[in-house]
Amino acid sequence: MRNRTLSRATAATTAVALVLEAIGIAFLNWFLGEVVDKQDMSLAGLDPHAMTLAAWAAGAVFALYLLLCAFLCARTAWRDRPPRTLPRIILITCAVVHGLLGAFAISLVGWPAFALMMAVLALIVLSLVLYDPAPDPKQKPAGDPRTA
User: Fold this and answer.
1) How far apart are CA 142 and CA 98, in angstroms?
2) CA–CA distance from 90 to each of 19, 72, 96, 99, 117 (Å)?
3) Over the stretch 117-139, which tens digit does the pLDDT of each residue have?
4) How far is C-alpha 38 from the chain's CA centre?
């Protein structure tokens, strides 16, 4: 039996954390695009404006992905039911992405960014684990002596 209050609070907190992260990612990519545009830098002959647009597009796509994951967590908290197969897969991919971002964050940004990524990863995994799908009531447990 799961603790309903804990699972709902965890899913809601995860949704808030993902929204804040989406805002941060969008702002970071906007800022990086502006820096490239103002410096008029070029990488291997690429047009600086194209690099600016690519940074903005990448930030927007990643922010939308995080907002989708936040919506799925908020819906899970609102309904107080585990996510179905496709939303569960999307949230699992979000957890994997946070694990990879955490690994990159250690070398590129530092330990505080790693700790932040791991905290969000823990919230996502905890939301998935606390809302573990209920077992089928027709299926008997493996250790049940009545099944022998």
Assistant:
1) 35
2) 16, 9, 10, 14, 17
3) 999 999 999 999 998 766 556 66
4) 31
**In the numeric block, which tokens belong to residue 80?**
């107080």
Closest CA to 119 of 6, 3, 12, 13: 13
Taking phi first (over 0 means left), then psi (-120 to 50 degrees means alpha), and beta for anything else, what does residue 42 get? beta
What is the model's pTM? 0.83
Closest CA to 10 of 88, 95, 76, 92: 76
End-to-end CA distance of the chain: 26
- Where helices occur in 40-145 by DSSP H, the ranges are 48-79, 85-108, 111-130
